[in-house]
Automatic annotation (TrEMBL):
The protein's name in its UniProt record: MOR1B protein
Organism: Tyrannus savana
Keyword Nucleotidyltransferase found: no
Gene giving rise to this polypeptide: Cd200r1b_1
Domain Ig-like, chain residue ranges per copy: 1-94
Locations listed in the record: Membrane
Length: 177
């Protein structure tokens, strides 16, 4: 989320007659980008300004999505027409959302580790395994908050570490409760 993404369209020829991208996002209606070489014209229907050709369509059939968000998830299909034939490519774009990590002590002196609004849900782990509980809360936008509460059985432990594992990265934080 937030990065730019470039989707490449298969092209086995240096001569493009026609090119189209058909986009079916999970949110909102479909959109399309088209290019015709004989008239050197482009056409766009219902596409946001964040979606455009990577360069010029006569030079590159690639599609660039700037500042990717959850709304851009969905299917992307391109078709290139060349003298050598028609070529198709299909992508299913899935957006990773890194969770926001917070580590704090609750009113009972237990360490609480929270990975908020990640997609897919994060996995949480404690460095010193003890009694822990896990809760997940799904949000309307497809993200999930994962919360783990560590009940320390040994009061001599002064510092505990929570590690968050996620495809967008891994993080660790320590706290003394």
């Amino acid at each position: 989320v937030g990065d730019s993404s470039v989707l490449s369209c298969p092209n086995n020829s240096n001569i493009i007659t026609m090119l189209s991208w058909k986009i079916s996002p999970k949110v909102g209606g479909p959109c399309s980008l088209g290019y015709r070489a004989d008239t050197n014209t482009t056409d766009r229907t219902n596409c946001s300004d964040s979606m455009n050709w990577k360069f010029r369509p006569d030079l590159s059939p690639d599609l660039e999505i700037q500042q990717v968000g959850l709304a851009q998830e969905g299917n992307y299909t391109c078709e290139v027409v060349t003298p050598d034939g028609n070529f198709h490519g299909t992508y299913h774009l899935t957006v990773l959302v890194p969770p926001r990590l917070s580590l704090y002590c609750d009113e009972h002196g237990n360490a609480v580790c929270e990975a908020a609004a990640g997609k897919p849900p994060a996995q949480l782990s404690w460095l010193l395994q003890s009694n822990s509980s896990l809760e997940e809360k799904s949000h309307d936008n497809g993200t999930v908050t994962v919360l783990s509460r560590l009940t320390a059985c040994n009061t001599s432990v002064t510092d505990t570490t929570c590690t968050v594992f996620h495809p967008a990265g891994n993080w660790s934080e320590s706290i003394a409760c």
